[in-house]
Automatic annotation (TrEMBL):
Species this chain originates from: Desulfitobacterium hafniense (strain Y51)
Protein name per its UniProtKB record: ABC transmembrane type-1 domain-containing protein
Similarity comment: family membership: Belongs to the binding-protein-dependent transport system permease family.
GO cellular component: plasma membrane
Major location (coarse): membrane
Membrane topology reported for the UniProt record: Multi-pass membrane protein
Length: 252
């Protein structure tokens, strides 16, 4: 059997045992179903959302916001990382400010963004961009700065122009670090999005989670948590797969 399939099967053993134990505890009434609904009740709530189509509305809304947030993040963080990495003199002017901003938790900016941008889409996008910016920027910068000196010397020996060096030397060498930054950025962006939707939203997975809390429906809360975790894992897997396709010489 394929080794990868075996690893996936092994990874499913613990969750399966946990669900069986959970169902058993619920069946014998050892926990309050209001606090911890049974897996069967959670599946029932998920099935209802599935048949009504409500769940797809929330997923679509969250994924759209995630895509917009990451597109803006990549458009800002990658060029800045490339610029500072290639022009080291600019680093001493920009990085102190970025180092200061990096230490401020994303959640601390929520009151500021609400004050400046209101509680609409702009606030959510700004929060996601801030959360995802630094992993993408730092890994892009590190990738450029960690290019092997021998490769630079080879490029110089072949008299490659500056643009050719960036395309054929710097970018391929920095690509693995770039993908690490993208994975971390997506993870941070996803968590920030859920937090923003919990605070102020009329649709989205974060809103669905809070709706379960407001309606005292614990099974709806757990459905939301399950979907958030599953989609986050699928996105991460998709980025890893893309990395393997784009960089076949590098093991993700």
């Amino acid at each position: 059997m394929n080794e990868r399939i075996i690893r996936k099967i092994h990874g499913l053993v613990f969750p399966a045992l946990l669900i069986i134990l959970w169902q058993g505890v619920s069946y014998f009434g050892w926990v309050n179903p209001y606090l911890l609904p049974s897996p069967g009740d959670i599946i029932g709530a998920f099935t209802e959302l599935l048949f009504t189509g409500e769940i797809f509305t929330h997923i679509k809304s969250s994924l759209f916001r995630l895509g917009v947030g990451m597109a803006i993040t990549i458009g800002l963080a990658v060029p800045l990382g490339l610029f500072i990495g290639l022009f080291s003199r600019a680093q001493k002017f920009i990085t102190p400010t970025l180092a200061f901003l990096q230490q401020i938790p994303t959640i601390a900016w929520i009151p500021v963004f609400i004050l400046w941008l209101g509680i609409g889409e702009a606030m959510k996008i700004a929060l996601m961009v801030y959360a995802a910016f630094f992993p993408v920027f730092i890994n892009t910068l590190f990738g450029i700065q960690s290019v092997d000196q021998k490769l630079k010397e080879v490029a110089q020996a072949f008299s490659l122009g500056y643009q050719a060096r960036i395309i054929h030397v710097y970018l391929p060498s920095a690509a693995p670090h770039f993908f690490v930054g993208i994975r971390l950025g997506f993870s941070n962006c996803w968590r920030a999005l859920v937090a923003a939707e919990i605070i102020a939203s009329s649709k989205g997975l974060g809103y669905l989670l809070m709706e379960g809390r407001n309606l005292a429906q614990a099974e709806l809360i757990f459905v939301s948590i399950f979907i958030i975790g599953s989609l986050g894992a699928l996105i991460d897997y998709g980025i890893k797969y893309l990395e393997q396709r784009a960089l076949p010489w590098h093991k993700a």
